Model the fold of this input.
Amino acid sequence: MSDAMNMMDKLSIDPSEGLQFGVYSLGDHLPDPVAGTRVSDEERIREFIGYAEAAEDAGFDFFSLGESHQEYFASQAHAVILGAIAQATKSIRIGSTSTILSTSDPVRVFENFATIDLISGGRAELVAGRASRVGLFELLGYDLRDYEELFEEKFDLLQKINQDRHITWSGQFRAPLNNAEVLPRPAQESLPIWRAVGGAPASAIKAGLAGVPMVMAHLGGTTSVFKTTVDAYRQAARHQGYDPATLPVATAGFLYTAPTSQDALKELYPHVNDGMKRVNGQGMPKQLFAQSADPASIVNVGSPQQVIEKILHQHEVFGHQRYLAQIDFGGMPYDKVMKQIETIGSEIIPAVKKYTATKTEELN
Amino acid sequence: MKVVALSSSNVGTKTRTVMEYITQSVMKQEPEVEIELIDLAEVDMVFSDGRNYTEYTGDTGRITRALMEADAIIIGTPIFQASIPATLKNVFDLLPVNAFRDKVVSMVATAGSAKHYLIPQQHLQPILSYMKAQVVQPYAFVEEKDLHRNQIVNDDVIQRLDRLAEDTIVLTRTYSEIREAADAAYGF
Done:
């Protein structure tokens, strides 16, 4: 059995149980545009922990939190919050979406996540990303010109640390390591490490060439567009001698469900539009957002039945192993997020798992 | 209605002279329009380094924000080496790809030679279209001989600039009404 095959096992991915379901937050801390209010930093951080607990109770497989260093975010110290989540939960797998590896020391990132793994009893995962918002480079003292090299070098080092307890290494962006012992070691044999991909094929190809699992984020557009990215990932992996069948793919994007698709659009729109305006400087045009309701759109907004059908369609197209739903963006009130988690858990997850589970006879 | 008049040359006075005139013309025709004239010769802009426009500071941050908040932008460009100047291209590079979505953008060019007449259409308009602008189709082309000591000395140019100012206002108002009605029809 290859290392890559171990990766499916390592992530407890069992085709007979169907598509894994996760919930993730970027860690944004935005005002609720409908109420015009914003919760305190303390409340927001407790909300992340609450989401993870509720997701576990509702039958989700995974919860993850992103790292961002800018206005309107509260999860700068995402590993610390994940530590609290590790303590507050019992069985759900937990991770980051994403850890910005480019502006951190891989030794310390590994120390943090190995510790989370020990606190959680072997449930930690790490998704390493390059950052889509780049203000943190200046804040943390890095040169944006090294955007690509910083990530590649650090990602390479992180994987080496993950494989070997003792490491000898030298590179451009960090002091050399001379037979250094990096501790603690995780409860799992090694940490499952994914690469974050923003949706464009170029980044997916890098993940494929490295033979690492990919989390592909998708803000909007049609499912067919993202098929190109998934194909490019698998083709690159095959080219490098990896078997794509052994490499997990996760997709990640907005989910919002209401009794009708019109209600769902109406309730979600102000949060997406206002949130994007504050975080990226540009809102979401209604014209584009209205197209989210279309079955061909990758945005999982609609009635529970419509969302189920969309996710099943996406699964047919991508053949992915895990789907991560973003349900709290843009100051979505806590009770509404809780309601989403409950509905997803009671109506959407059972149906999606039922239809995506590979039967034993099909595997043989 | 917020309008920015962008004088995008960092040398000479011709583009500035024309942009001052069109700014006055907009104010005269539509006194309630909020118009700001930005002259790139008077500000200190950094080169785009790929960050989001919201993350720039100083003049760069102020000007990118002013452009993003505008309903309409009148771009005044000189023609350098048969194209737009680097100062103007840098402004585009500082903004997001869809920066001009739902904005009306009109063009005024100043040039040393009539041979450059098609440059705005060939070099500027493709960029504006890519950035999703609603481009005012007619544009004003002003030659060196139309100007003397920071004054426009050709009445025809004055009338063309007045018409372009009106076209910009009318299209901005019309477009925003159409957009609002379309958005309202979505029902969310």
Remarks:
- The interface with chain B takes residues 70, 133-135, 144-145, 147, 262, 265-266, 269, 280-282, 285-287, 289-290 of chain A (CB under 8 Å).
- Chain A is about 45% helix and 15% strand.
- Chain A has a mean pLDDT of 95.
